[in-house]
Amino acid sequence: MIRHRPHGSGHAYEPTDDQRVPVIPLAGEPFEVRASTGYDIEAVVCEWDDGDGVVELTAVTEKAAQRIGDSGGDDDSHLAAAAAGRRGDRHRWVVRPAPLAEGTSARYRFVARHRDGRIRTTSWHTVAPAVWRAGAGRLRVIAHAQADRLVEGSDSSLVAADGTVLRIRFALRLAPGAHVVGFGERYNAVDQRGRTLDAQVFEQYKGQGFTHRTYLPMPFAMVLGGDSWAFHVRTSRRTWYDVGASDPDLLWVEAQTPPDGSLETVCFSGAPHELLSAFLDETGRPEELPDWIFRLWASGNEWNTQARVIAEMDRHRDEDIPVGVLVIEAWSDESTFTVFRDARYTVTEDGAPHRLADFTFPADGAWPDPKGMVDELHQRGIKVLLWQIPLMKMRPAPRGQAAADARAMIDHGYTVMEEGGKRPYRNRGWWFPQALMPDLTNPEARQWWLSKRRYLVEEVGIDGFKTDGGEHAWGEDLRYADGTTGAQTNNLFTVEYPRAYGELLRDSGKAPVTFSRAGFTGSQNAGVFWAGDEDSTWDAYRHSLNAGITASACGIVYWGWDIAGFSGDVPDAELYVRAMAASCFMPIMQYHSEFNHHRLPLRDRTPWNIADRSGDPRVLEISRKYARLRERLVPYLAQETRTGLAQGRPLMRGLFFDDAADDRIWDFPDQFRLGSALLVAPVTTPGAGSRTVYLPDGEWVDVWTGQRHTGGRVVERATPLDVIPVFATADRWAGLEAVFADTGD
User: Fold this and answer.
1) Of 275, 329, 425, 529, which cross-links 387 as Cys (Cβ 3.0–4.6 Å)?
2) Residue of 544, 18, 482 whose CA lies nearest to 7
3) In this predicted model, what pLDDT tens digit does every residue of 584-603 receive, in sequence order?
4) CA distance 652 to 553
5) Number of C-alpha atoms within 13 angstroms, CB side, residue 517?
6) Full-prediction pTM beyond 0.70?
């Protein structure tokens, strides 16, 4: 067979082997048209008609793309294997027609000759170029109580052949020395000046800091230094930014537009917390979550039986490492994601939800008594979250309840649709390929999806959900029940997904605690977040610090990461301890490990496993120190969060929030405040015997020694393995001294 899809798969960054590149060419600019075939095709031509009759363009064969994802490194994990997405059974065929002039068009199709002489063709398609024109779109830049930031005459629009405005771009002024922070969660740097990036939700499996890709983008940033201001591009569509990269004095914004060609951007002025507060007034403010989220979270993908879970919690207790939250990932049958593995029950052929009484749990099964287990954990003071994915798995072919649920989704129109609404969308990404995706803009689909999980909250008694994934909506051609397309709603799916689960929890009398990695504008009030999948490397550690500081600058309050990374071989003792210490002073402190096929030695990120694997018993001692300290910090974290929510100050925040006028803080971008009283300077390089710390103006106290320092200067702090530099403001030290009392050097 031969395949050509003009728009490809919808991958945000890598054109597929069967699409136009670019999808809509620019007038007078080169472009290419691709088709893909099996290796049984020996020749391909493109029949091309630009108005002067059909001519044959000979397609040349090129090496097909080897992956649809990027593992971000060489490892043998199950996710890395999925991300590799090998497609070695396909040929890519390419033609490069002459550039099309403005006002012209062409129609074309591919014709393939099989080895046995058979001929295969694609449908006919039409292509017409777009042009950039000044003033064609409807741009509105709103400035609040400040000079106009828009560069006069800079706006132009990308106009399709039929007159539709596809994009608008414009420039905002950048003052010398200004720093630009935001754009959602960013791994590559805190200050984006001098860089280019975009805002599109994407699942970048590991290595995010070496790219500009992110799970959690937002079209918002603060421009700090001197006359501080911020801007919000009021759209859920894709946007692009050139932050002084092409011209150091200009910040270029480019955005996809709706069919009416309109785009609105608002500019705010004020101090950083005022800028963030103004943004949150538009997007929704974070809500206060229960204090227990500030305790230590623990999980491992191989903790996949009741016996293993209880054993791990017993070990935490025996090692005096207090746990507040347990996340169980591999609990389900891995097909419905609503039923505990090994449970026995009668299939509801219409896809109706079950209640707890419908299940029998064999004594020799993986989960002989889920409710009893949750009750026991609650008695120990441990909250329980279960893992979820917003997909209906279709490979391998579903059976039993999974098959019934898939039929129900299709028969009742509960799925996101593709091809103009003609058929259910099948996941085009690398994780759970071809899976169905629930349309959460459809109230009936949303209610049905949540009803399948209601018994877990109301009867089993769990306390929240790890709402993993969410980045699976690829393609502007997708159609949602509310009448929107993929261009408008794909990014927003990541917001509605945890919100939906939060509604279920709230309706059941629980706090809306969800734990997500993907998001967009509006995620500020959609639960708790972690930084996504990452290797156990020093680079990943540094990149995660960037992510936390930038996410908080956009209003993500409840944020953490997988301590020292979750993928690949275990971190060494030094990296683990440094990461554990830093995480003690982040909003969410949690460790997690990837599935490793239950091979030995274990890759669990528990302190005792790292101590055993590294041969360094100090790992366990130091981890115990910081886990116990974390327990004592909970009241401070809870109170500072309450205060910060009212003021527009996130709990974890870059120094620019409190000391925006101090230019020296930008030389120390990895330092941050934890609330108003603590300054944290993580140790992020191996073998560091000391750390240079900048203390802004004021009086400071070293929390480990009680030594006082006058700010506005740099200090060199010794950093033995068990010490992370942390300083308290002198006026708050009396109330914090007892918290640090038994954790001295």
Assistant:
1) 329
2) 18
3) 999 999 999 999 999 999 99
4) 9
5) 24
6) yes
